[in-house]
């Protein structure tokens, strides 16, 4: 499958709604977005969903009067794509620099640090390390 285009910030907000809620109408997406961003226009959400459909980011079920939109790309795939792009463009491909910047920018909880250590141990084990 070809790589989906990188979503804009506005498109990413809509995708987050669809990932958490599942398939939804424009009205449903608009209602969720209006809670966090008052003043978000219904027609803006509709236009973005139409653009996202044309780009292949969402699919549109036109069987009913109210069209139902669904994400075409899983959240994890989009996250990997965006991190890979960030890693290449900003950090010159250095995972170390990316992780160090992330940890210095946002303080990780002890639970998050424990999970990071666990993930690193699993990664090292899969790579044939100690």
Describe the overall structure.
- This protein has helices at residues 9-21, 26-36, 42-55, 75-91, 95-105, 110-126, and strands at 58-61, 68-71.
- It is mainly α and 130 residues long.
- It folds into 2 domains: 9-71, Arc Repressor Mutant, subunit A, CATH 1.10.10.10; 75-126.
- A two-stranded antiparallel sheet has the order 1-2.
- Helix 2 (26-36) crosses helix 3 (42-55).
- The longest helix has 17 residues, at 75-91.
- The protein is elongated, with a radius of gyration of 18 Å.
In short:
The chain has helices at 9-21, 26-36, 42-55, 75-91, 95-105, 110-126, and strands spanning 58-61, 68-71. The chain has 130 residues and is mostly helical. The longest helix is centred in the middle third of the chain and has 17 residues, at 75-91.
Helix and strand arrangement:
Layout: H1 9-21, H2 26-36, H3 42-55, E1 58-61, E2 68-71, H4 75-91, H5 95-105, H6 110-126
Antiparallel strand pairs: 1-2
Helix pairs in contact: 2-3
Q: Mean pLDDT across all residues, rounded?
A: 91
Q: Specify the CATH architecture of the largest domain.
A: Orthogonal Bundle
Whole-number radius of gyration?
Answer: 18 Å
User: Please, what is the CATH homologous superfamily of the largest domain?
Assistant: Winged helix-like DNA-binding domain superfamily/Winged helix DNA-binding domain
Oligomerization: single chain
Structural class: mainly alpha
Order of helices and strands: HHHEEHHH
State the strand order across the main sheet: 1-2
CATH topology of the largest domain: Arc Repressor Mutant, subunit A
Keywords:
130 residues, mainly alpha, Arc Repressor Mutant, subunit A, 2 domains, two-stranded antiparallel ribbon, 6 helices, elongated
């Amino acid at each position: 499958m070809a790589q989906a285009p990188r979503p804009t910030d506005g498109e990413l907000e809509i995708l987050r709604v669809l990932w958490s809620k599942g398939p939804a109408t424009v009205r449903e997406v608009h209602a969720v977005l209006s809670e966090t961003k008052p003043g978000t226009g219904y027609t803006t959400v509709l236009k973005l969903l139409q653009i996202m459909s044309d780009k292949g980011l969402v699919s549109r079920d036109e069987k009913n009067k109210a069209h139902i939109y669904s994400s075409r790309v899983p959240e994890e795939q989009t996250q990997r794509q965006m991190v890979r792009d960030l890693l290449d463009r900003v950090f010159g491909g250095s995972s170390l620099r990316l992780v160090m910047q992330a940890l210095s920018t946002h303080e990780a909880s002890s639970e998050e640090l424990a999970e990071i250590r666990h993930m690193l141990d699993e990664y090292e084990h899969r790579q044939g390390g100690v």
